[in-house]
SH3b domain-containing protein
Amino acid sequence: MAAFFTRCKQFLRRYPLLVLVTLVAVLAFGFTTALANYNMITVRASVLNVRQGPGLSYNVMAQVSGGQKYTILDQRNDWYQIRLDNNRIGWVASWLVDNTEVSQATNRVGLVTVNEANIRQSANTAAQVLGTAKSGEKVTVLYQANGWSQVLVNNSVGWMRNDTIKLTNETASTVQTNDGSNAQVSQAAIKTVTTKQTAYLRSSPSDEASAVTALSANTTLTYLETTGQWYYVQTKSGQKGYVASWLVSLSANDTAAKTIPTKLSEATIMLDPGHGGSDSGAIANNGTSFEKTYTLETAKLVAAALRAAGAKVIMTRTSDTFVDLGPRADMANKDGVDAYISIHFDSAPTANQASGFTTYYYNPKKDLGLAKSLSTALGQALPLTNKGVSYGNFEVLRDNDEPAVLLELGYINNDTDYKEIKSANYQQQAANAITQGLLKYFQ
């Protein structure tokens, strides 16, 4: 031990500068790490939804008030993960925190002041034009930042330049549907609300108010009026009280329009691995390899890639089980997904007769844009021939109310195609391409 200390002293005498630099570097690293671990955000919106995941498609788990501060635990896409006071962890939209330019005139009516103003998909002059607004037309201004206004026009959300709008003192009658966007609904049109999860009917519009009764998920209540972020409702048994607006969905003669995602991280995607269980699908030339195996393997990789991009993913099956065609489309309709992708592998009447992949759509109005975006991305990534976009009269597309496509990602009874189909590399290439296609589609 004495010899060890003697060597240390000799080292310090010979290399004092090296020791000092090393010590400073270690301290600096520790200080930087400490700062990185304690980044704070301040809520600027008057009320901010905290969601279960990093995207608008995830359920609201709580709300926080303006001015509150939270530590950032993680960041994904445009979302921050925070810890609430009760130790629950959730996600908040980055564009609604630490933004001093957010207008306090949220939900005020604006008048278009130019002959014709473009409404764009995002706050950028290069963004896609969704439509136009004429001089004198009224729009609901949701919030303003960096010279742009997010507006609601004809139940669609878009962006307009501030210099094309003049704010009035009139406040729009709106109901909040998600972070930073609202769906404009006439209160006279609202008939019922339905709980999306277990909730409480409260005696006044506050989380602190006493509970009148507990409400199970999917309970339908008669709508009476709106008070702030709360609905005054009546149960079937006649009990009246308040339920939080973020815990229910609306039903009306003309229901609140679905908000169209402008980013993949805001979207809900349904993946449908074809066949399964007793339905093997097409069979490879070896007689022992089935389509159902590779559709599921590929779908799982697609799901992982999409979740990494912030999307919410629902799968029609996650194991080797049989799901009939009708229920697959029904799932998409019930969940109101933003895109439905059915994954298959083709088969020709004769072995090795056909090769390549095809993207099918049914309804050109709702499906074709999605089909083209995915076909282009797949064509740029896969080694097989892109046979393009084609009309397909498939039940899962025909009975689907949402944007839907069916992908035939190669011919399983073509030996060259099958070599790719069964490889993890090809499946991952397809997963990455589908993700890229959806990123482009939701821009």
User: Anything to note?
Assistant: The chain has eight helices and 28 strands. The mean pLDDT is 79.
